[in-house]
Design a protein that fits this description.
- This protein is an alpha+beta fold and 351 residues long.
């Protein structure tokens, strides 16, 4: 276990933002993770768990406590079951699953961060979510003081949400088990229309696994969603806001606002989101409210490649980022009556 004091946290995040932690502990085994968590809990010290740092917005004042960086490693493949240590790099794990000829997470290629973070946020993109493939999560239960195994059902997954996100002070993920599919080297059925178009197939078709992964990587790169130190469009947390899910009544009111603003023939994006609910596009809302690609004049701006990504152009502070985020939230609310919700975890700050 490695310990540093007054340690910078910005380099551990994809935003490259945030002040220092009083103490930074790097744990390389599950036992070290549990020991560090227990030590913090026993002493009443605030604890911040850091994986790949791709979903964190840390305040400029930093963190008055112990930041625990999970750097555990371990990949085990047994038949169609893939087990990952929480600190494994997610994009590498996806590549391994494709090389092994197993389907189920290939369209989640290129997503930054660690394997242990994926169940917390129920990470999803291009028609796949990890909840469809996760069979078990092994976690340290801080309340019970023991390591527990939760089934996929017990994780209570929903859109960009889980039991872990709903009770963030209780669990620290140690390992994640995925049950994948051997489809003879073919992908899971392609669900996302944009992916299907790029592949030249119909939704529901299967394609070779490697082709699905490479296509998603190209789509993500075109939106600045694949990490590149030389490209400030990737100095972000990816999608900064979740796509709003509305009741039918809320959607009808929203639709009326859209037509008032954009014309009687205007139709907002709408996707099924369970009985009596519809999901619309946060990126569309932001763009139509006037916050287009590249919007902003300061050191924090909307990505030049995708309106859903807020970015650090190199010299930004967290407060610069939050000022932009608040402007976007207020503008979308005024235009369409919908309040956007941030996807990244806020540490010591809020919208």
């Amino acid at each position: 276990m490695h310990v540093l004091h007054d340690a910078p946290l910005a380099p551990l995040t994809t935003f490259r933002l945030g002040g220092p932690a009083l103490r930074l502990v790097t744990a390389e085994t599950d036992a070290e993770v549990v020991d560090a968590v227990r030590e913090a809990d026993d002493s009443g010290t605030p604890l911040l768990v850091v994986g790949g740092g791709s979903n964190l917005v840390i305040g400029d004042k930093g963190f008055e406590g112990t930041a625990l960086r999970i750097a555990t490693r371990g990949v085990e493949l047994r038949g169609t079951t893939l087990e990952l240590a929480a600190g494994e790099v997610w994009s590498d794990a996806v590549a391994r699953s494709v090389e092994a000829g197993l389907a189920g997470i290939e369209c989640l290629a290129g997503i930054p961060g660690s394997a242990g973070a994926t169940p917390i946020q129920n990470v999803g993109a291009y028609g796949q979510e990890v909840s469809a493939a996760i069979s078990e999560v092994i976690a340290y239960d801080r309340r019970a003081g023991e390591t527990v195994t939760l089934t996929g059902e017990e994780c209570a997954f929903s859109y960009r949400h889980s039991r872990f996100k709903g009770d963030p002070e209780r669990y620290v993920v140690l390992r994640v088990r995925f049950e994948l599919e051997d489809a003879g080297g073919m992908s899971a059925p392609i669900k996302y229309a944009e992916t299907a178009r790029a592949l030249g197939v119909e939704p529901g078709d299967r394609v070779p696994l490697a082709e699905a992964r490479e296509t998603v990587l190209k789509l993500r790169a075109g939106k600045g969603m694949v990490l590149d130190a030389g490209d400030h469009d990737t100095w972000s947390a990816g999608s900064f806001f979740t796509n709003p899910i509305l009741t039918e009544e809320q959607f009808a009111a929203f639709q009326e606002r859209v037509r008032e603003r954009l014309g009687e023939d205007a139709e907002p994006p709408a996707y099924p989101a369970g009985e009596g609910r519809r999901k619309t596009s946060a990126a569309w809302l932001i763009d139509k409210a006037g916050y287009t690609k590249g919007y902003g004049t300061g050191p924090a701006r909307i990505s030049t490649k995708h309106t859903l990504a807020l970015t650090n152009r190199g010299e930004a502070t967290t407060e610069d980022l939050l000022t932009l985020a608040r402007e976007v939230v207020a503008g979308v609310r005024e235009a369409f009556g919908i309040t956007l919700v941030n996807e990244p975890v806020m540490v010591g700050v809020g919208l």
